[in-house]
Amino acid sequence: MDFAGAYSPAHLKFLLQGFWITLEVAFVSIVLSFIVGTVVGIVRYWRIPVLSHVMGVLVETIRNLPLLLIIFFTYFALPEVGIKMSKMNAAILALVIFESAMLAEIVRSGLTSIDKGQTEAARSSGLSALQTMRFVILPQALRRMVPPIVSQFISLLKDTSLAVVIALPELMNHAQIINGRNVNYVIPTFIAVALLYFAVNYALSVLSRKLESRQI
Hints:
Protein name: Glutamine ABC transporter permease
Largest sheet: none
Distance between the termini: 48 Å
Keywords: Amino-acid transport, Cell membrane, Membrane, Transmembrane, Transmembrane helix, Transport
Family: Belongs to the binding-protein-dependent transport system permease family.
Structural class: mainly alpha
CATH superfamily: MetI-like
Number of strands: 0
Radius of gyration: 21 Å
Membrane topology: Multi-pass membrane protein
Number of domains: 1
Strand content: under 5%
CATH architecture: Orthogonal Bundle
Order of helices and strands: HHHHHHHHH
Transmembrane segments: 20-43, 55-78, 90-107, 183-204
Low-confidence stretches: none
């Protein structure tokens, strides 16, 4: 093991550049998948004829597919039908598709956990279905959904490493490049990678616990 060589300024800078790409992909994917997942979850909760059923089939199908397959599909299959995109956009699209399905189920379950009496009371007071969802049901459900949603975001951050299969220049890709220069760099490099992932994911876990404790 060569810690000195693996942790040279040039190598550390290279790893951090890859980590920045990882964070960019994760951030954009988190924002988009949260929006899409929330909308799909609400549609399924409302049980809109046909649309809700179609959404349910899509969610269950995607949830039972490996993310790696979806990444391959967005990067290698879509260009075959004329949809070409960069490695980063392909990775983001794959993550959004996969994570939206996961979040949609979390949102649907969270909304279902709210007592139906509150919906009936809100509607009887003159609120529309949309107003009831926005001002009464969704705020309460979101508080209950914080832990599973943050856990899903942590999983998403870790899942960005799968984009190494399409050579996205993220953290794992840069780690592999460094390891290819010298076999003695492998263990030190992977230790550094593990620490970077741990730092961000642990911060998210702490944030989740603080948000949860404020709701008790």
